[in-house]
Amino acid sequence: MKSIFKISLTLAIICAIAAAALAAVNQMTQKVIAINSQKELQESLKIIYPQAERFEQIGITSTTPESPTENKEFTLLDLYQAFQGNDTIGYVFKVGSKGYGGQIVFLIAVSTQNNTMIGIKVLEHQETPGLGSEITSPRFQNQFKEKSLSDHFEINQDIQAISGATISSRAVIRACQGVVTYLEKERGQ
Question: 118 vs 163, which has greater pLDDT?
Answer without folding.
Answer: 118
